[in-house]
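If you are new to this repository, start here. Below is one unmodified record pulled from the training split, so you can see the exact layout before writing a loader.
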Amino acid sequence: MDSRPVETPGCLELDRQRQRRPEGRERYTISEVAEYAGLSAHTLRWYERIGLMPHVDRSHTGQRRYTDRDLDWLDLVGRLRLTGMPVADMVRYAELVRQGDHTFPERERLLSAHREDVRARLAELRSTLEVLDYKIDIYADARRASERA
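And here is the target side for that same chain:
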C-alpha cells in the first residue's frame, strides 16, 4: 500500500491545474515539477527533507521522478500555502495522511481550525477593502468635481 500523503482534490480549480500537465506523462523530473508548481528545485528538496513531500521515487541513477500523485499533493500544498497555513501544520497534516484513514477526525480538526483562521482573515480583508473603496470614492468624487469646474 502506498503511504504517500495524497488525497484526491475535487474542486474545479485543482482540476484545471491538472490540465496544465504534459499529456501522456506519468513521471516528471524535478525541473519539470518546479516549473509546473512554480517552486524552485531547492524548495522541492526542502519539502522532502521536512516530511511535506516524502517518498519521491528515484530513477536507477538517483534522480527524482515525480508522479501525477506527487503533483496532486503539490497542488494541495500550494493551496494550503495560499491560505497561510503554517508549514508545521502542513507537515503535521502530511504525517496524518501517511498514518492512514484512522486519522480522519484529527485531519478534520486541523483543517477546520485553519478554515476558521482563513474566514477571520477574509472578514478582516473585506473590512479593509471597504475602507479602500470609501477612500477611492472620495478621491474620485473630488476629481470629477474639479473636472466639472
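Two things worth knowing about this chain: The radius of gyration is 21 Å. DSSP finds six helices and two strands in the chain.
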